[in-house]
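Board work, copied verbatim: Molybdenum transport system permease
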Amino acid sequence: MPLSKNDLDAILLTLELASLTTVLLLIIGTPIALWLARTDSWLKRPVGAIVALPLVLPPTVIGFYLLVSMGPNGFFGQLTQSLGLGTFTFSFTGLVIGSIFYSLPFVVQPLQNAFEAIGRGPLEAAATLRASPWDTFFSVVLPLARPGFITAAILAFAHTVGEFGVVLMIGGNIPGKTQVVSVQIYNHVETMNYAQAHWLAGGMVAFSFIVLLALYGGRSARVRTL
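↓ predict structure ↓
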């Protein structure tokens, strides 16, 4: 059975959401992970716990508080309205914001581990050569932490593709605007259209398997080179 237009729109929207979220998460997560890997501050544990909260909190809890805060009576909602931006609830922008919060630990933790594995030796060597912090990051840290960046990007993309509770709470179920694949599968099940649900759910299973295969295959290759 061919996919419907709503199914195809949901797939395209999901890919767009996952791609944009991954890029933004790498930009946001890199300085957080670098700080967590290098700092001796007492704030390290509280910040690390906050970053890891989405790993233990139900997605609906995260979605609920984001919905309230970005709504017309919430702090961020009032701020965006005062700036003439309206509210971000039930919009693609809201989905991106929710996805960033929900998938943040899947980027920060692999990057933090990669930065910690580098150690201080290469950084001190770069400093003795009078390399600036930017030169050190792009010439030393980034190449050495490349496996961590690859893992973080794959996990962020895959985790965003599989979101349900957060995106449903923040974005609702608007075709072509906030209706992603996971929500569309739920719609098909609700209407007992199991054939269409199988097409989308099967695609998600295949996608998840390929992601895990890539992750484990990459780890095995790195181990063999050590």
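The mean pLDDT is 86.
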